[in-house]
Amino acid sequence: MAGGGKPLFNSPALSLALTNLEAQRDGSALPVMGSLGSGDASLRNKEDENDSRSGSDHLDGLSGDELEPAGNSRKRKKRYHRHTPKQIQELEALFKECPHPDEKQRAELSKRLCLENRQVKFWFQNRRTQMKMQMERHENTLLRQENDKLRAENMSIREAMRNPICNHCGGPAMLGEVSLEEQHLRMENARLKDELGRACALAGKLLGKPISSMSAPLPLPMPNSSLDLAVCTTGFATPLPALNDFPNNASSPLGTVITPARGGPATVGVDKSLERSMLLELALSAMDELVKMAQMEEPLWIPSLEGGKETFNYEEYHRSFNRCIGVKPVGFVSEATRETGVVIINSMALVETLMDSSRWCEMFSCVIASATTTEVLSSGMGGSRNGALQLMHAELQVLSPLVPIRDVNFLRFCKQLAEGCWAVVDVSIDGIRENASALADNMKCRRLPSGCLVQDLPSGYCKVTWVEHAEYEEAAVHQLYQPILRSGLVLGAHRWLATLQRQCECLAILMSSSAPTTGNTTITASGRRSMLKLAQRMTDNFCAGVCASSAHKWSKLVGAGNIGEDVKVMTRQSVDEPGEPPGVVLSAATSVWVPVAAQRLFDFLRDEHLRSEWDILSNGGPMQEMAHIAKGQHHGNSVSLLRASAVNSNQSSMLILQETCTDPSGSMVVYAPVDIPAMHLVMSGGDSTYVALLPSGFAILPDGPGVGGSSTGETKVGGSLLTVAFQILVNSQPTAKLTVESVETVNNLISCTIQKIKAALNCDV
């Protein structure tokens, strides 16, 4: 450019660029950016960019508010402090619970951590970006491996097609003699190519950028693909990384993606991807915690002198683990238990039962009121349950009207730790979903990492270590049950494992060809199955009448008649429901403490010879056992058919179906009057679905020394918590209105039965 002439270019920017290049060639310094008109704005943008960095990326130095000396001609630079480990820990804890904090939460956090509001805001933005980028890298690595595998298979097929070999003589095959197997391989290869193209299109939509099926890593396949990755339902690719691949207390094993601006077309898909990555991170952390809790000894688990029990050390727990689901809500109490035992089942069968909500609910029918699988994120890999991840909802019950249902939404994750060794963990997901605040208001219970470790034994059995860790709102529980609930004996590991052992023993006996059946009536094998199915339905209906879960349509009755405050009365209308008589059904239940050992109380209630001492249905006469089906080695686990003999000619004999079950965690006696012709049909192998039942019975929990204190604060010497429940048809018309007399009749029946039991056992009435 000439010294005093016009610039060579009309554009000021191009002229400036040319001037800079000439200055560089001459060795002169470049113009100072601060001298340009837009320099101040550029510096401000640079400072905002620096402020948006994570605290771990800031440089140590002076505060940005300190000024340079007045005579300094160079522009002052802003220096930053690193976030302290405590600040990072607090930020990580909130991020796990809520990755998108609102303005109020950010303000509270910035005030508590002595940070600026925008520092907190930028930290959360960067954390979400970091998580998503790590997720992308992890998915791309797995997809690239799968793509390489398909390419290798394709090359092997092409090679086989170039040099076909006859399967009979081993020589070269003539044209047209390609084997049927190779033809199938060609068809499978064409199908995989088509599937790959569709998967690439889907992954391109998900990631917001086009992906080539020839050069890019293989994306996740469609839901109906034989490649078991299922992007639409899983959200992450399998196989899952091993727990040992991550360091202890790692904040995110997989990480995630950049979140686009809200309101954009990709917002919903990315939010779902972020949620799935958070669920996977939660599952891995919960699995790590479960395995450690199952294997650790002192000081986490302190042995007790009472019967080999263990006491959980909460202080050591808080030192050893980072909480997966945030701090304990106000008003909640904790219970943590562990139990180990041998079960008559192999590890694979048990894992399949736990991962199937219907089979899980059937196995623990006395503990689980209802269970559903709400979403399957991964069905596992290689045709097994290894890596299976699913969202579930369950209602856990204690057979007493004084203890509310525990409603939990949780994540269930299954992992194979070694050959013949599996682990299944549950952990609540409250706080991850978008409606976390609404869930927190209604949440009464949540599960911390809980589950079991299963190890196959040479005998065909398996060793099970069960861990239960929960937090629940104690104020909703009656004082009579608060001590025993807090001890973990009611819904703790002891109850789960004892129920599993009893149910597996029952299944083993029923599957054997020589299942014992005694009594005066001959029952065929099909009749035995039909009778057991009927007894199972009877017991399930009994539990539903006591606890009233959402799976059964019961309406609670309040303020009807002279009813005690500890008696819960419910009603429902039965219309054309198979297995139930039509009309208005009334259910009443209550729980009392009885100063009698649980085993003695159970033996008394199940004995048909002593039934007339408390059961008004026996007409005061003796009972005779017509049939008996054993359901376990313990003589208290059985199904019986009883006949009440008529005392005089004016009374007709009747049949009573009774099921009794017992284990160290509790016992039940459930019975119902049944129609004689219907039972003859059932015992001959007929369908039991339409046999009408209205069950009644008892649930017994052992309440030993120092566990269930009385309402006055005194310690009981030993006794039982007895629940009494009746279901009665008060009117055969479903539209009929319930009368006060009917309610008082059921209430008097409960009171009279309890008084007779106490009198027969020489208790203080």
What does it look like?
This protein is α+β, with helices and mostly antiparallel strands. 35% of the residues lie in helices and 21% in strands. GO terms for molecular function: DNA binding; DNA-binding transcription factor activity, RNA polymerase II-specific; lipid binding. Residues 43-60 have a biased composition (Basic and acidic residues). InterPro entries: HD (IPR001356), HD-Zip_IV (IPR042160), HD-Zip_IV_C (IPR057993), Homeobox_CS (IPR017970), Homeodomain-like_sf (IPR009057), START-like_dom_sf (IPR023393), START_lipid-bd_dom (IPR002913). It is found in: Nucleus.
Secondary structure elements and their pairing?
Layout: H1 12-26, H2 39-51, H3 85-97, H4 103-113, H5 117-162, H6 180-207, H7 267-295, E1 301-303, E2 310-312, H8 314-320, E3 332-343, H9 347-355, H10 357-363, E4 368-378, E5 389-396, E6 406-418, E7 421-428, H11 436-442, E8 445-447, E9 450-456, E10 462-473, H12 482-486, H13 493-511, E11 517-519, H14 525-547, E12 555-557, E13 568-574, E14 583-594, H15 598-606, E15 623-630, E16 638-644, E17 654-663, E18 666-674, H16 676-683, E19 696-703, E20 719-731, H17 740-760
Antiparallel strand pairs: 1-2, 3-10, 4-5, 5-6, 6-7, 7-9, 8-10, 9-10, 11-15, 12-13, 13-14, 14-20, 15-16, 16-17, 17-18, 18-19, 19-20
Helix pairs in contact: 4-5, 5-6, 9-10, 14-16
